[in-house]
Structure formats: structure tokens, C-alpha cells
Amino acid sequence: MTHIGRCRAHTNIALIKYWGKRNEELFLPMNSSLSLTLEAFYTDTEVVLDDNLDSDIFYLDDIKQSDKETAKITQFLNLFRDLANIKTRACVKSYNHVPTAAGLASSASAFSALAGAMNQATGLDLDLKTLSTFARRGSGSATRSLYGGFVEWYMGEGDESDSSHAIPVDDASWDIGMIVIAVNTGRKKLSSRVGMKHTIATSPFYSSWVETATSDLTKMKDAIKQKDFITLGEITESNGMKMHATMLGAFPPISYWEPDSVKAISKVKEIRETGIPCYVTMDAGPNVKVLCRQSDMDKIEALLLEDFNREQIIPTQVGEGIKLISDSDWNY
Ligand code: 2P0
After folding, report:
1. Which part of the chain is the Mvd1 C-terminal domain (predicted)?
2. Mutation test of ligand 1: which of 24, 72, 141, 196 has the most ligand atoms closer than 8 Å to its C-beta?
3. Can you list the domains of the chain with their CATH numbers?
């Protein structure tokens, strides 16, 4: 017997960052974070539970993945199998519409799409809040990709896995957009997982990062409620820089920046000084993301093209939460 689930999930970019776990096994974060879901980057995933399979099989963009990569998927699927009380193995096919491992949070869309597809295939029918606690166990940032718009990942309490989940904050339908400046889309050398662990262990700035991330979140949620774009942007830029500062304080120091990251940041500041509000944020990679008003995107793009190539500038609107994909819409 076979059971099929198919799901699309969009990636998200954190405006208040997650950078560290208080419980590594359960993926419980040190602080709550807040993100914007993006329309242009997503993952489509199919899960086929098949009684005839002896082990899980995992294809990414039609390429069969190694035992090591497949083992991570098996561990994740086991969370659902345990709950559903089944042992059936799965064939998983994922198609990434995100430059993989470029700091564009591909694991966020990957694990939220896999969670959505497995939820359907097993018939568990978990609600989105519960499903976000499952997505979290694949990759922390995946917690937030269950919903569209602005999404909080509430850190939860103690070691209670169920308490750390996503909360939809606002659909961001008030003239919000983002432009990615792709500085380098190659695979990063240091994973977020290792980078954040090293930062907690060695950076003397880490405790003040957690404190200010918490107060930044309160201020940002207030700015979103007021639809105050300038405050939203200012906190976004400040919070991202503080996360990178904790890494510079690590021993030995970590930096994901490249010379063109600095060039992009300077250019955005220059554009802002012409009177167009736009703010940068960066993740565990050299690419720069520009938070702006959707209605200013064309103007900003034209100015960025003075210094960057066409293919480096990727504008995107606000994305939606996860969606199941019907048979007729599965085009792979
Ligand atoms: C974020 N990042 O909030 C932060 C900001 C990168 C910088 O979440 O170990 O792939 O799988 O939980 O989610 C990237 O880290 O790490 C990330 P794991 P994840 O978006």
C-alpha cells in the first residue's frame, strides 16, 4: 500500500535572528526570532510511504542523495512515524527553488515542506502550530516557514519541546518587499549549526546578544502593529549586525562576509541617503538581503544594477505559508 503527501514551503529570512540553541537535541533556541516569508524561494517535496521499501530513499533535484544525507531525513521522518505508530519507509523527492546553502535558508523551506508532505502522507493531520514544532526538529529556521508574512518563532519554556513553535504575526500585506543581492551562491564552508555552537562557546558578547534580541523582538512586533516601516527596518539592520558581531567576538573569530558583502551594504546605505528607506540583513553566508517597500523595489533595483550584475539581484514579494500540492499541480 502507498500513501502520498506533497507540499510546497517558502523560505524565510529572519529580521530578528536565531543564533544558538539551548537544547541541541530538541532544537530549542536561546531566543525567540521573527522572520519574513519570501515568495521567490521555495521547496516542493513529495513523500511516498511504500510498504515495499526496506529503507528510506531521498532524491534532491532528481539526484539520489548519500546515506549520510538520507539518514538525516530518516531521523526526521521517524518523529512522524513514531507518532503515527507505523514503520513504513518512504521515497522522498525534493525540488529546491533556492540556491542551496547560499545563506538563503534552504533548510527552512526543505524541512517545512517535508513536514507538510509527511503530515499528509501519514494522515496525522497535525495543525500548523504542532507541525511547526516538528519542522523545528529538522532545522530551527524551518519552524517559521509554516506561515506566510511576518512569523515569530516563540522560544518556548525550559526543555518542553511542544512549547517552542511558530506564531503568525502579520500577513505583511502593507507594501513590504525584499531584494536579495547574491554575492556568492556557492556552498558555505561553515554550517550555521557549527557556527552558532562555536559562538555560544567562545564569544563574550553572546549573553548581551540574547538580551538585546529579546528587547528587539518586542520593539519589532510593536512596529509591525503600527505598520511603522522605518522602525521595522532600523531594528532589522541593527539586529542582524549584532548577530554578526557575536561571531567576530568568537575565538577563533567567524565571519561569513566577503568583500562584495561590504560593497552591497555600503550601496544600500547610499541609496537610503537619497531618501528611499531600505535596510540590510545578512545570515550565515555572504549574501545581503534588502528589506524595502514593495513600491520602491524597481527604483532600488535600478540603483543596485549600477554596481551589481542582473543575475545577482533577486527581488521578491512576501510569501505564503505551506500549501499541499494536488496531483495535477505536481509538475516534476
Ligand atoms: C535565522 N539562521 O534566524 C538564522 C540567522 C542563520 C542566521 O537559522 O542548526 O539552518 O538547522 O537549526 O536553521 C540558519 O540556521 O540551523 C539560521 P539549525 P539553521 O534564520
Report:
1. 179-316
2. 141
3. 2-173 (3.30.230.10), 178-316 (3.30.70.890)
